[in-house]
Specification:
The complex is a heterodimer of chains A (488) and B (486). By secondary structure, chain A is an alpha+beta fold. Chain A is built from 15 helices and 16 strands. In chain A, strands 1, 2, 6, 7, 10, 11, 12, 13 and 14 form a nine-stranded mixed beta sheet that branches. A three-stranded antiparallel beta sheet of chain A has the order 5-4-15, with no helix packed on it. In chain A, strands 3-16 form a two-stranded antiparallel sheet. In chain A, helix 5 crosses helix 6. Chain B has 15 helices and eleven strands. In chain B, helix 9 packs across helix 12. Classes of the chains: A alpha+beta (488), B alpha/beta (486).
Chain lengths: 488, 486
């Protein structure tokens, strides 16, 4: 996307704008479920993490897990949102085999968190996305249709796990913004430790609301909701496919039906799940087993005081304090592990070099090996040592790359590598002068050419001198002495 | 010593503590009488064998410090009992054996009581005559083919027929007090939040309360003391200091202000009920209480409000009985068909009627007109009582608008059946404690009850007033053992 350009879909001299709103379901990081003490650990044997409450046995009652409440408040604070001191748990009634109670406990009219915002760093500047609300709800179990040919099997391990549903305003306008929004949301929650954001394990999924309208139009078009999309890539594909489907309908003079749709990842198209007429009547009403949730100002203040520095604030600090560019700062704060790594490295080494080495060499290695920064093959300690070797002139940047390549193999100490391999930079002016003299002697013809005005040859002499030093010559010194000799 | 089964809980515990009776002796006598009383159909499931084992175990190492030392007790089949089938009077739970114990019953066992068995009740506690039970009618020991009231009909009949010294029931709209009134026994519905709902099969969560059903007021105070407790497993359980109800029981009610609500003089109320009420008032005066006329202006709306709120909650509470996880399942070609067959065959008509009413009043488009409005009226009813209790200490009313009726008399007329709860329902809506004590008889010699309603958490006061009135009334149940087969 070029600077200042909007995401528009073109049809015969017409330009359509795409309006997107997301309902993100984020699993609350918590040892136990929202209303029971069962474990939430991922990947356990089916039906091994199910209490009598989760399986809705007669006479069983939900008891709220206060930690999940605190996690929701924390997330609300991270979204700069209003925390509602009184909220209500409602029952959303529907029948399904993996919904043991016959209702999901959710929050309908009175969510725990009200309006907030998320700031996106887009190539053409910042954009604010409004948050409508955040509410807590129980996850359902899992129906498994492909093990037994005649029966559906049910796994209730997920049943009752706490989810935060984070509803955005219809402020998103492109698949790119959706990408940045999801990543930013995930980043904030990972900073807070309220959701691990692991999309492979289903900790983060979204319902995507899409509508289209002609550019310049101010009213929203009819929207469709695409249910339960579980990766950013699929969200983007679904949006593009759904927007085009809607535009095609409009172009044919047809109307768009408000409906719930599913995204078929194999065919890259959305298809109707149920129309507005078939929409469930969930018969929401306040859950009489739970009292309205009351949150004291004291608790909110206590949680506020525990909130770590969040990406936006950290970015500002990195720019102000370390003189980083907004681009560099954005990259370094995007993930809490990265920013921690960075801050650890610069405790003992140069900021500018650390920035370049982390965003350059280290990221390249991580990418290549498909590793998270938490699994970095080079420790912060050894990376700062390497940077210090460059900074104090012990090795050149070029040699440093060779050393780095070796460090990756078992997090080796760069000091030892430099010592063992004799890679220490030659910075003795006398020694440099000697090898420069040699280069000048061996290339008298080139010297004559240079002196007659062929300035470009200076690079050639630097190269020869570097070669003569077996790459260990101090580049600044070589430059300086060469200039003196050739120009003198 | 009088016949063991006719002894009060107080007498039995005294006799056990004084080693005049053993737990085994008592348990066997009750079991023996139960074997001869099958005609009453009070038991859904008995626990006789285990009960005898447990009574022997108690006797071999008795702990007389307990409040119910070795006392055998049968309970309503709405309380989940670990390892003992719990049906809620429904086919859909016909084969359900819990692996857990309700808090209320656990409180009984922790104080030394022994489970005799599970008592019949209306299906999911929905009914006023015990006629909706999948396990059939219960006979009222007062007279043949007479209903024992409901939904705790097996419980009231069992106490009246001396088949258990005391029992516990549940009361959502009158299910303890109305059957107590019909059988000449005492039944108390505690303040909402007094007894834990954990492990009690839910009917309407915001109204359900467990409570004691006994032969007399003193036993009632003893049993309430045991079953009422704060429980973290029930979020609506309330943490407050509970009295030692039996220790603090007193007949001294001098100067207590007792309110008489004019709205409870309903149309067509039989003269004998009116007379019963008048007698109650004069007895209260005799005890030194001050009688004050009060008004509870929204009383008329209580029954319709109840029949919106209770079915709404029930329709959702009973959604879990779907044939997937436990209980009865009728197989189908697909999930929807399995649901339809399971729930059509598994639930009885009254339960289905209430599920449909509840589903309707919660439906989009009707929610505001019914459920939301009912909740507002409920607040007004509650406020009526708040206002009244700023002037009086307790309220005295009849328990029911009539005495026990014949089996089958009202089964085809749900509304006339629902009218049975007209005096008891407002108390559940307001979350207050209420007790029914036997206070007289009608022309057929069937018992009639008076209800004493108290402020929240003021069970001690209504127990004391009942204790004083009981003494003046001197009610004697006239039961002939007509059902006993040798």
């Amino acid at each position: 996307m070029s600077k200042n350009s909007e995401y528009l879909i073109e049809r015969e001299n017409k330009q359509y704008e795409v309006i997107i709103g997301l309902e993100v379901h984020a699993q609350v990081t918590s040892e136990s479920k929202l209303f029971s003490q069962s474990s939430t650990k991922f990947g356990a044997e089916p039906n091994t993490q199910v209490s009598l409450v989760d399986a809705a046995f007669p006479g069983m009652l939900p008891v709220i897990n206060e930690f999940c409440i605190e996690q929701a408040i924390k997330t609300g604070i991270g979204l700069k949102a209003k925390i509602n001191k009184k909220s209500v748990f409602d029952r959303k009634n529907y029948f399904y085999a993996d919904l043991p109670q016959g209702y999901q406990i959710s929050q309908y009219k009175y969510p725990i968190v009200g309006e907030g915002k998320v700031i996106l760093d887009m190539p053409n500047g910042q954009k604010e996305i409004g948050i409508e609300r955040l509410h807590l709800e129980q996850d359902a179990g899992k129906s498994i249709h492909d093990i037994d040919p005649n029966n559906t099997l049910v796994d209730l391990n997920r049943s009752g796990v706490a989810l935060m549903e984070i509803v955005s305003k219809p402020d998103l306008r492109s698949p790119d913004e959706v990408n940045v929004y999801i990543k930013k949301l995930r980043s904030i929650m990972r900073y807070l430790g309220t959701c691990d954001g692991n999309m492979q394990e289903g900790s983060l999924r979204a319902d995507v609301n899409v509508s289209v309208r002609l550019k310049g139009e101010t009213e929203f078009g009819t929207r469709c909701e695409i249910k339960n999309v579980n990766s950013i890539k699929f969200m983007q594909m679904a949006i593009i496919s759904e927007a085009n489907r809607q535009i095609d309908l409009l172009e044919e003079g047809k109307e768009i039906d408000q409906e719930t749709r599913l995204f078929d990842t194999k065919r890259n198209e959305t298809r109707s799940m149920r129309s507005k007429e078939d929409a469930h009547d969930y018969r929401y009403f306040p859950d009489p087993d739970l009292l309205p949730l009351e949150i004291s100002q004291e608790l909110i203040e206590k949680i506020k005081s525990d909130i770590p520095e969040l990406p936006d604030e950290k970015k500002k600090r990195f720019i102000d304090k370390f003189n980083l560019s907004p681009y560099e700062a954005t990259i370094l704060v995007s993930d809490i592990e990265t920013s921690n790594f960075f801050e650890d490295v610069i405790k003992n080494s140069d900021v500018k070099l650390a920035t370049n080495w982390i965003t350059g060499e280290l990221f390249a290695v991580l990418n290549e090996k498909n590793l998270e920064i938490s699994q970095s093959p080079v420790s912060t300690k050894n990376l700062s040592k390497l940077i210090n070797l460059i900074k104090d002139g012990t090795i050149s940047g070029k040699i440093a790359k060779t050393v780095f390549e070796q460090m990756i193999d078992g997090d080796q100490d760069p000091l030892i590598i430099v010592k063992e391999k004799g890679l220490k930079q030659e910075s003795d002016p006398k020694a440099i002068e000697e090898l420069i003299n040699k280069v000048i002697e061996n290339n008298s013809d080139k010297v004559a050419e240079y002196k007659s005005g062929k300035d470009k040859l200076f690079g050639f002499f630097v190269g020869q001198a570097m070669k003569e030093s077996k790459g260990k010559g101090n580049p600044q010194l070589i430059n300086k002495i060469l200039k003196e000799k050739l120009n003198g | 010593m009088s016949d063991i089964t006719s002894q009060s809980l107080f007498e039995l515990t005294s006799n056990i503590k004084e080693k005049k009776l053993s737990s085994e002796e008592i348990t066997k006598v009750f079991i023996d009488r139960a074997e001869k009383s099958k005609k009453l159909n009070v038991y859904v499931t008995d626990n006789f064998e285990k009960a005898i084992d447990q009574s022997k175990k108690f006797d071999s190492n008795p702990n007389f410090d307990l409040k119910l030392p070795g006392i055998p007790i049968a309970v309503k089949d709405l309380f989940c009992t670990n390892g003992v089938r719990t049906t809620a009077g429904s086919k859909i739970l016909n084969n359900f054996v819990p692996t857990y114990e309700s808090t209320v019953t656990q409180n009984l066992w922790s104080q030394g009581a022994i489970l005799l068995g599970k008592l019949n009740c209306d299906e999911f506690a929905m009914g006023s005559s015990n006629e909706t039970s999948f396990f059939g009618n219960v006979q009222n020991p007062v007279g043949e083919n007479l209903v024992p009231g409901g939904s705790s009909g097996g419980s009231s009949a069992a106490v009246a027929a001396n088949l258990t010294p005391v029992t516990i029931g549940t009361d959502t709209g009158g299910s303890i007090r109305q059957p107590a009134s019909f059988t000449g026994t005492v039944g108390l519905k505690p303040t909402y939040g007094s007894c834990s709902r954990y492990g009690v099969v839910a009917f309407a969560s915001s109204l359900d309360q467990a409570g004691p059903m006994t032969k007399n007021v003193r036993d009632c105070s003893m049993l309430l003391e045991v079953i009422s407790s704060f429980d973290q497993k029930d979020s609506t359980s309330i943490d407050y200091k509970r009295n030692c109800y039996s220790k603090e029981l007193s007949k001294d009610i001098k100067g207590k202000k007792i309110g008489i609500p004019k709205e409870y003089r309903v149309d067509n109320m039989p003269d004998e009920i009116e007379q019963l009420w008048k007698n109650g008032i004069s007895y209260a005066k005799d005890c030194g209480a001050e009688i004050i006329d009060i008004s509870l202006p929204h009383t008329n709306y209580a029954l319709p409000t109840y029949y919106i709120v209770a079915p709404a909650e029930a329709s959702s509470n009973l959604a879990r009985y779907d044939g997937v996880k436990y209980g009865f399942r009728s197989p189908g070609q697909n999930l929807i068909e399995m649901y339809e067959k399971t729930r059509s065959e598994g639930f009885g008509d009254e339960v289905k009627r209430r599920i449909m009413i509840g589903t309707y009043v919660l439906s989009s488009g009707y929610y505001d007109a019914y459920y939301l409005k009912a909740q507002k009226v409920r607040q007004l009813i509650k406020k009526d009582f708040d206002d009244a209790f700023s002037k009086v200490d307790a309220i005295l009313t009849p328990s029911t608008p009539s005495s026990a009726f014949k089996i089958g008399e009202k089964t085809n007329d749900p509304v006339s059946m629902y009218l049975n709860d007209i005096f008891t329902v407002p108390i559940n809506l307001a979350g207050l404690p209420g007790i029914s004590i036997p206070a007289g008889k009608d022309k057929n010699n069937y018992p009639l009850g008076l209800q004493v309603i108290g402020k929240p958490f003021d069970e001690q006061n209504i127990l004391n007033i009942s204790y004083a009135l009981e003494d003046k009334i001197n009610f004697k149940n006239d039961i002939s053992d007509w059902w006993v087969s040798e």
